[in-house]
Amino acid sequence: MGRPAGVGLWGSVPADTRRTLYIQLAGIVFVTLLCVHNLLELLSSDYGRGSADGVGSWVWRAETTYSWTNFGGRVKESGVKKEPGPNPEAASLPPFNLDCTAAQFLESVATGSRNGVRDGPFHTDCQLYNYTSSEACGVLSSFDSILVFGESHERHFVQGLFSLLRNNTRGMGGLQNWRVPPGSDVDKQCQGEEAFEEKDCRWVVLTTTDHMGPETFTADELAPLNVMHEFCPGYLPPTIKSIYSYKPERVNIRYTNSILAHHPRSVLLYGWGFHAGLDSARALQYLITPMDQLAQEYPETTQVVLSRHSAQANRPEQYEATQGNGIIRKYNEEIGGNITWMNEQRPGVRPIYYYDMYNLTKEASSFDGSHYGLRVGLLKAQVTINFLDRLRHELGFAPRFTKF
Ligand SMILES: *[C@@H]1O[C@H](CO)[C@@H](O)[C@H](O)[C@H]1NC(C)=O
Ligand SMILES: *[C@@H]1O[C@H](CO)[C@@H](O)[C@H](O)[C@H]1NC(C)=O
Ligand SMILES: *[C@@H]1O[C@H](CO)[C@@H](O)[C@H](O)[C@H]1NC(C)=O
Ligand SMILES: *[C@@H]1O[C@H](CO)[C@@H](O)[C@H](O)[C@H]1NC(C)=O
Question: What's the pLDDT tens digit per position in 361-387?
């Protein structure tokens, strides 16, 4: 090894080691500059944020002033960064109607009526507004996720919601239509109203936004479309998940907890009943109580319990005693009564909401006497959006946008 160059302690370090140290130092400086650069970038951008004014009008912050400085304080670059402005694909929400609170709105749905007109318009004391798909997406973008648990009524609920959000009400909006080969039996049989009725359509029911991610498109005959990109343009697409079960005992609290931990502003919609003799005590013990205990840990989470639908005359006669309107009404009243009682026991705690769909379905036509098709599915979805729009104002949750 040669004589050390330079003087002092540094000079005593061998040249090889000094070179290595210089290279490492340069690396550290480079990474630090990169971090500072990225941080400035982050601070000067306004990605996906609307102002949380909580009253339904919000602005996209279109301009951000910024400056980047070098070490020593010399301004390297400064100016006004232009953001794209309001996303043209995000329709603004309708002016908010202050006629009723979220709770009053659901009460007006419970007592609503079609005034004796079969399949006629459903009337409620509070205003029932028809949201466009884009407006509905805007309302849901204020929440982190929509989680639905239950039996066939809940599956249809999700199908109706997807049909509305995708603005696809004549075709297969509630189905994973991108998986259906054109001209196939499913393609021919599962459009519009039929999508709710046909058992053949069930294998492609759209039950979660997870279905819409690119990872879904593995089957080689299918075009690798990014469906999520097309979903709720302009708005942060809501996460929707649903679980279908024959038994309330199967509600998976740990799974639900794992979602709520990352999605605290969620809406839990759940109901169950037909698969074990409309036993309200069982639903209360195994579904409502555990869900409620979990939801209490997340104060921004909203619970909505779903009632059972009314039955129609075309229901097969053998079910009259076990699933007729008498026992359905009794079941609904017991669930509703217990929820009212639970809420009264704890003033100051966010209530459990009860979405009673008996009257909403009473004068509607059903294809099998107990399940309803697209029109009722869309109405159930519209009621939900009307409720959630009022609720988000009460909670101060603002819609969230994306730039793409
Ligand atoms: C449903 O509507 C009828 C009138 O058509 C009304 O008497 C009844 O109370 C309503 N149901 C509920 C739960 O309020
Ligand atoms: C909402 O849409 C439904 C179904 O198309 C229609 O029957 C109803 O009259 C509409 N309501 C309003 C208030 O426009
Ligand atoms: C929904 O689809 C209809 C045609 O079916 C179209 O006229 C309307 O503009 C669409 N709305 C949105 C918000 O995309
Ligand atoms: C609560 O549920 C129980 C059992 O299901 C029922 O017997 C009771 O009547 C319900 N309470 C109310 C207030 O409806």
Answer: 999 999 999 899 999 999 999 999 999
What pLDDT, on the 0 to 100 scale, is given for residue 237?
85
Q: Quote the tokens at residue 321.
A: 């005693």
Inside any domain, residue 90: no
- Can you give the pTM of this predicted structure? 0.80
Q: Where a domain ends, among 23, 48, 82?
A: 82
By most ligand atoms within 8 Å of CB, the mutation choice from 307, 359, 362 for ligand 1 is 359
On whether the CB atoms of residues 117 and 106 are closer than 8 A, the answer is no
Q: Where are the beta strands (DSSP E) in 337-404?
A: 352-355
What's the pLDDT at 85?
47
pLDDT of residue 206: 92
Q: What torsion do the CA atoms of 384, 133, 238, 339 make, to the nearest 10 degrees?
A: 0
Same domain, 147 and 282: yes
Measure the CA–CA gap between 100 and 129, rounded to whole angstroms.
Answer: 13
Q: Tell me whether residue 232 is in a domain.
A: yes
CA–centroid distance, residue 378 to ligand 3 (Å): 15
Taking the C-alpha atoms of residue 134 and residue 146, their distance in angstroms, rounded to an integer, is 17
Amino acid making up residue 262: H
Question: How confident is the model at residue 344, as a pLDDT?
Answer: 97
167 CA → ligand 3 middle, Å = 6
Same domain, 248 and 365: yes
Residues 30 and 139 in one domain: no
Q: Which residues of the chain have pLDDT under 50?
A: 1-6, 41-64, 82-86, 216-224
Number of domains in the chain: 2
Task: Please tell me whether residues 75 and 137 are part of one structural domain.
Answer: no
pLDDT at residue 143 in the model: 97
The residue segments making up the domain with residue 368 are 102-395
Going across the sheet that includes 239-244, the strands are: 239-244, 145-150, 266-270, 302-306, 352-355
Q: Ligand 3 test: best mutation among 135, 167, 172, most atoms within 8 Å of CB?
A: 167
Phi first, then psi: give them for residue 69, nearest 5 degrees. -115, 145
